[in-house]
Design a protein that fits this description.
The chain has about 290 residues and is α/β, with parallel strands linked by helices. Helix content is about 35%, strand content about 15%. The protein has a 7-stranded parallel β-sheet, sandwiched between helices. The chain has a two-stranded parallel ribbon with strand order 7-9. Strands 8-11 form a two-stranded antiparallel ribbon. Helix 1 links the parallel strand 1 and strand 2. Bound molecules: NADP nicotinamide-adenine-dinucleotide phosphate (NAP).
Length: about 290
Amino acid sequence: MRVKRPLIIGADGGIGKELTAALRVKGCNPLATTRRSSASSSGGPEVLYLDLADMASWTPPETADVAFLCAAITATDQCRKDPAGTRRVNVENTVLLADRLVRSGWFVFFLSTNLVFDGSTPLCAASAPVNPRTEYGRQKAEAEARLQALGSSVAILRLSKVLTPDFSLFSRWAGELSKGRPVAPFHDMTIAPVPMGLLIQVLLDLAESPMGGIWQLSAMDEISYAQAALQLCRSAGYDETLVRPVSWREACPDLEHVPAHTTLDCSRLAQAFGFTPLSAQDALMRTLGDFQ
Ligand SMILES: NC(=O)c1ccc[n+]([C@@H]2O[C@H](COP(=O)([O-])OP(=O)(O)OC[C@H]3O[C@@H](n4cnc5c(N)ncnc54)[C@H](OP(=O)(O)O)[C@@H]3O)[C@@H](O)[C@H]2O)c1
């Protein structure tokens, strides 16, 4: 790869961990950050300590290359309950970090979300006005705007739900269903899933030819969580009658906002890299094998 010494901010997270591993497989020598005190580099990438809650004295490494900002407080409920504390991490110090990196010659990739939109329309264009309805979405939208103001050395990649091999909801369902116990997925909440492997491939492609601005990645259509649970039954041979769909409006009426649509227009990726979005069904099938 052209990239030699990438920096992964938040290498313990779901995406950061996979990306760090993939970059190593590609022959890169990544630098990884952690906020955990037990950081160790033995046998792994070189690890730097960085806590986004308090990074006053942090200075970027001098070996400027490509940096991926994968650290954030991603729990929407935590953002709702502690808007000031989470905003410090997700907006203020993320922007401060990116500013320092760009000034030191780094190209910065920031991972954002479909929740910068209200989800009232499918396949939102990258240029559409943002309209977040959750605190998490508002923080991401503000971070995006301030990062874009840093110039062309910043790229934003908006993602819909990324499915990891250890996605806890599917693991829980598989555990229950395998014991003959029912599950109650939402029939009125959708995902436009992106398998982790596909996201990593897109990040590697982007890193090879860094271009600023906004990129978007999602499935081409959506599937409800109830449909996903049924698909899990079909692929693993569990009893489909154990899937008892419910409405989030009854089960979790306090949810801040549930978007009607979660798909994003991925045409810039298609034009730049010949990328073809997966259907939600195919994206799910690529991941479900890990839950049987
Ligand atoms: N996964 C998705 O479906 C998805 C979808 C859309 C956008 N995104 C975006 O993609 C990025 C990565 O998501 P993810 O799923 O990998 O999230 P994740 O698994 O929750 O990981 C987040 C990482 O951020 C770190 N972190 C949290 N607070 C920190 C702080 N104060 N200082 C330093 N690090 C801190 C966490 O550290 P610890 O491990 O020590 O807790 C963790 O390693 C996020 O920006 C997220 O908004 C993800």
